[in-house]
Specification:
- The strands form 3 sheets. A 7-stranded mixed beta sheet has the order 3-9-8-4-7-5-6.
- It contains 21 helices and 16 strands.
- With 637 residues, it is α/β, with parallel strands linked by helices.
Length: 637
């Protein structure tokens, strides 16, 4: 039996729900689209797509590739946004702290948190996806906030001496605890994505709390706070890096000379020995020239050519003094301490060059030293015997003058200026500055104006040396000479304090330079102040022999002034009232506008008003001796 079947229309097929035709067919404006899903092996996917598009008039869409492209674009955009955010964070920290080193220290916990978190995730076999990356940004944001808070706390401690870290640390721990409770609760979720997200958050938050509360304060105190407590200047990364490189160069060069060059000099005599001494002197000089921020200069008061042997005496404040003398001449033999003679780095070179250890006794080395003198070499002695923390010339010991008398030699003074600021005793940082070596005039062996024997000559030449060095200081030290050292002493303190100190110096540096001339170099000073201690610092940098008692009514400013590292190196004491002063005061210095001088029962011989306008001493016994702007000097003489 023949039956005729009419074909099903699209409308008819849509009525059959089991076929779900509507999912694969669509129609719009008479245009039909038919779609179908084909599963292909991974290795045949690309070839299938190319073949089907080539043989049939169809469009093949790879959903997997499309999803991967979408996620790739999303991840790339997300990484770009992270980079922009990181840049914005860095710029914000720079603007806030106004200091490169503080910015780096603040970013240190953030970077370390990222490294630690990534490392832990790697060992646990967890891969970062787009969702866990979002959580990581939250963790790093929290870490950034904590780092800024800790930097503020540590900066406040460095500025005022107050340890506010426990308060900040408690706040941070509470913030981390609440964050862990809110996000960490997802660790109990059954869905693997939520479980992974919570695990990443927990690892990141615990890394943040450990790093910011333990490691970060340790590094900050190591690099900044502890140096000030030891009486050492704050430093910058540039100073640390360049000093390390300079000493590394010096150490390797000294080791090379000890191992190689010294073997040639042991048996050398005459011109050969002189050549090796010239090479070693050039090496020592080259160490100084590794630092372009330290200017070098040689001044010769006479036509001294070091052709005639002499006893060379020089002031001694720094490890660099021997290097500085090498700029003037190489025809010298040093009298050195045992640690130099026995040094594993340059000990062999020192011995080969004929340097003499003073611990063996000068009397026992007369013959050896006489041999060097006969060869045309001068003997270098530091008559102060040890380095000084300041640029003051200390008492001369008699050894150098005994040698001059024994060998019948002239005394040749060499004045070294600047090393006490460039590389102070007890420090290893080479600071910016200038080194000047001045070759003075010979003091003839038969010049009786300096005494008839070595004991008398030691005292009189000591006084002469001090006067000549003071004249050299007056020539070289202008109103800006201690500017960098002053600013370094306030480095890393609160921005408002640093700004005020710099502003004060800018407008009053000429006045402070003039003030120094009217205060004796060994005076006991009572300073009535309302600043951050910058005037005390300048006065003791200019003359280390001054002893200053500073009375400040403002507790916060007094605390800030007391935290300056130079207070430990200079004779500065901050008091709350006059009863704490146990010395006779020579000079009264008033720089507080609100101080009433009539409140003092007794005034010293010199009364000075500084940065105060229209102030006088209402006492008939005092007369105005000098006036310069807001600087007025009264004397009872």
């Amino acid at each position: 039996m023949n039956r005729n079947y009419a074909p099903l229309t699209l409308k008819d097929t849509k009525k059959i729900k089991a076929l779900q035709v509507s999912e694969f067919l669509s129609q719009e404006n008479g245009f039909f689209t038919v779609s179908n899903v084909v599963k292909v092996d991974e290795g045949k996917r690309d070839r299938f797509i190319k073949d089907i598009e080539k043989r049939h008039d169809v469009l093949a869409i790879d959903r997997q590739q499309m999803n991967e492209n979408f996620l790739g674009l999303l991840k790339r955009d997300f990484n770009t946004l992270i980079n922009y955010s990181l840049l914005a964070i860095i710029l914000t920290i720079i603007v806030f702290f106004r200091n490169f080193e503080l910015t780096v220290l603040t970013m240190f916990p953030i970077v370390l948190t990222g490294v630690v978190t990534a490392g832990i995730l790697y060992f646990l076999g967890l891969e970062l996806n787009i969702f866990s990356t979002v959580v990581c940004t939250l963790v790093f944001g929290v870490g950034d906030d904590f780092s800024i808070f800790l930097t503020q706390a540590m900066q406040k401690e460095h500025t005022t001496g107050k340890n506010e870290l426990p308060t900040y640390r408690t706040s941070i721990i509470l913030a981390v605890f609440t964050t862990i409770l809110s996000i960490g609760s997802l660790i109990f979720a059954k869905h693997p994505a939520l479980h992974s997200l919570a695990l990443v958050a927990l690892i990141g938050m615990f890394s943040v709390i450990i790093i910011t509360s333990t490691l970060y304060p340790f590094w900050f105190r190591l690099l900044i706070t502890n140096r000030a407590r030891k009486g050492l200047s704050p430093i910058t990364f540039r100073l640390l890096l360049h000093s390390t490189l300079s000493f590394l160069y010096y150490g390797l060069g000294g080791l090379f000379f000890s191992l190689v060059i010294s073997s040639f000099t042991k048996k050398s005599r005459g011109r050969t020995l002189n050549f090796f001494k010239l090479i070693s002197a050039r090496f020592l000089t080259s160490v100084l020239f590794t630092n372009p921020w330290v200017r070098k200069k040689i001044i010769k008061a006479t036509k001294e050519d070091f052709s005639r042997p002499a006893i060379i005496i020089a002031n001694h404040t720094s490890f660099l003094d021997t290097l500085a003398i090498a700029m003037a001449t190489h025809k010298i033999v040093y009298l050195v301490n045992d640690w130099v003679y026995q040094s594993p780095v340059f000990g062999k070179m020192v011995k080969a060059m004929g340097f003499y250890p003073v611990s063996q006794g000068i009397e026992n080395g007369i013959d050896k030293l006489q041999e060097k003198i006969d060869q045309g070499y001068s003997l270098v002695v530091f008559p102060e015997a040890e380095r000084s923390y300041t640029n003051d010339i200390k008492r001369f010991h008699k050894g150098a003058f005994y040698l001059a008398e024994q060998f019948g030699l002239d005394i040749l003074p060499i004045y070294i200026h600047g090393n006490s600021e460039v590389l102070p005793k007890g420090d290893f940082i080479i600071y910016d500055g200038a080194i000047t070596v001045k070759v003075g005039e010979r003091i003839k062996k038969d010049d009786i104006s300096f005494g008839l024997n070595y004991s008398e000559r030691a005292k009189k030449i000591n006084a002469y040396f001090r006067k000549e060095f003071a004249d050299l200081r007056d020539e070289l030290e202008d109103e800006n000479y201690f500017k960098k050292k002053l600013f370094l002493s306030f480095l890393y303190k609160d921005a408002e304090v640093v700004s005020e100190v710099k502003k004060d110096f800018k407008y009053n540096k000429s006045l402070y330079f003039e003030l120094n001339k009217h205060i004796p170099k060994n005076a006991n000073i009572l300073h009535i102040a309302d600043d951050f201690g910058q005037k005390d610092i300048l006065l003791t940098l200019q003359q280390a022999g001054r002893k200053i008692f500073t009375l400040m009514k403002n507790d916060e400013k007094r605390q800030i002034a007391e935290q300056n590292y130079l207070v430990k190196r200079r004779k500065i004491r901050y008091v709350k009232d006059n009863t704490e002063i146990n010395k006779k005061i020579d000079v009264l210095l008033v720089s507080d506008e609100n101080f009433d001088i009539c409140s003092l029962e007794k005034l010293p011989e010199i009364v000075i008003f500084c940065t105060i306008k229209d102030n006088i001493v209402n006492n008939a016994d005092y007369t105005l001796k000098f006036s310069y702007g807001s600087l007025k000097v009264f004397s009872s003489e």
